[in-house]
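Support request from a user on the community tier.

User writes: "When I paste my structure tokens into the form, the page sometimes reloads and wipes my input. The last time it worked, I copied everything first. Here is what I submitted, just in case something in the input itself triggers the reload:"
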């Protein structure tokens, strides 16, 4: 599973949204997938955001993630 950590210290889910891409008339490319992102947490520092994304990736934050995904 992949997560984005933005420069403004936010963790985000990658979300493929074919309908949204179609509305923007983006051409399909097999080389690079394109993602939208849903912010799932904000942090005071970049390191905190990285730590949070690592916790999500290794499964130690499973219940919190499942709650935020609803």
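"...and here is what came back when it finally went through:"
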């Amino acid at each position: 599973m992949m997560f984005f950590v933005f420069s403004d210290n936010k963790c985000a889910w990658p979300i493929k949204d074919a309908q949204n891409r179609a509305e923007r008339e983006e051409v399909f490319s097999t080389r690079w997938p394109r993602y939208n992102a849903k912010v799932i947490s904000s942090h005071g520092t970049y390191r905190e955001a990285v730590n949070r994304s690592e916790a999500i990736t290794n499964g130690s934050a499973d219940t919190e993630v499942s709650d935020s995904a609803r």
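Agent notes: The reload is a front-end session timeout and is unrelated to the input. The longest helix spans residues 46-57. The chain is about 35% helix and 20% strand. Escalated to web team.
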